[in-house]
Amino acid sequence: MDANGVAWARIPSGGWRDRKANAEVGVGTLEIEREQRGTHLIVRVTGELDISTAGTFRGQVDQWLAESRSRDLLLNLRHMTFLDSVGLGAILGRLRTLQRAGGRLAIVEPEGPVRAILRIGGLDKVASLYTSERAAVAAWEASERGA
Amino acid sequence: MAPEVGGEVAVNEMEIRLPAREANVGVVRVAVAAFASALPFTLPELEELRVAVSEAAGNVVLHAYPAAEGEMVVRVRLRGGELEVEVEDRGRGIADVAAARRPEFTTSDDPEHLGLGFTFMEQFSDELVVESAPGRGTRIRMRKRPHGA
User: Fold this and answer.
1) Whole-prediction pTM
2) 3-state secondary structure of B7
3) Would strands A30-37 and B137-144 be described as parallel, antiparallel, or unpaired?
4) A52 has a chain B CB within 8 A of its CB
5) Among A132, A92, A91, which residue's Cα sits nearest to residue A110?
6) A-chain residues within 8 Å CB-CB of B51?
């Protein structure tokens, strides 16, 4: 356990993973988890990204990005169950932060009706959307090989 | 079976009064969506309703009471096969409603405030009426009908 009270777990891929659950982030509807896989930072969002959770999401992801060796962020929204304009703004804000640092944002799309909200909000026009983490990482690796 | 009055299905109504706090926005959208499920909305339509209601309640939290905590009142009516939602506050009001309804309009200096609240409310309801007077508050009324198969 580190100084912030976060439990760390080694995973077979050689990276590491930790999770901020409901009680830790002080809200009842959002859970975010990070995994550092090689040079790729993966953040998985479960639950509702809205006016009451966007601030927590923003602060935690920015901290993880600052700690990460990666300039690229893979945001897995597969299990996100709600998104409003404040949550959308928080995602776009992370995109701008990454772009300023020369990094990239890839998004694994949510399932169900939330996917439509994301597209109506125009996220598909400014970020790369994928159906799985594997597809997103493969696209990154292909572009790195081609670079 | 809904009670009938004079051969017509009676109006079903609900009113919620809550402090205008971030955590209560989720309470409002869950309550309204549960109320709305008496109509044959599809899941995507209910999702649209949840977003529209969240935007209306979220605007109260973000903008209505800059100095102290105030109250938001949410009234929901089910009548004639459609849902009507009112979100009301007695806050500072909107000086220029037409400007506020334009996409990407925002009074916030936070670059992550997209100014899409009214755009989502408009897009995800069949009718949106905004009444506001500076210093007296704002009332947003949305109507939504089931369109799905």
Assistant:
1) 0.84
2) coil
3) unpaired
4) yes
5) A132
6) 82-84, 117
Domain CATH number, residue A99 = 3.30.750.24
Domain that holds residue A51: 9-146
List of chain A residues with pLDDT < 70: 1-28, 147
Distance from the B104 Cα atom to the nearest Cα atom in chain A, whole angstroms: 11
Domains of chain B: 13-144 (3.30.565.10)
Position B76 scores a pLDDT of: 98
Burial group, residue B146, by CB count within 10 angstroms (0-12, 13-18, 19+): middle
Number of domains in chain A: 1
pLDDT tens digits, B127-139? 999 999 999 999 9
- Coil, helix or strand at residue A57: helix
Query: What is the tens place of the pLDDT at every residue in B99-115?
Result: 888 777 777 767 777 77
Give the integer Cα–Cα distance in Å for B126 and A46: 30
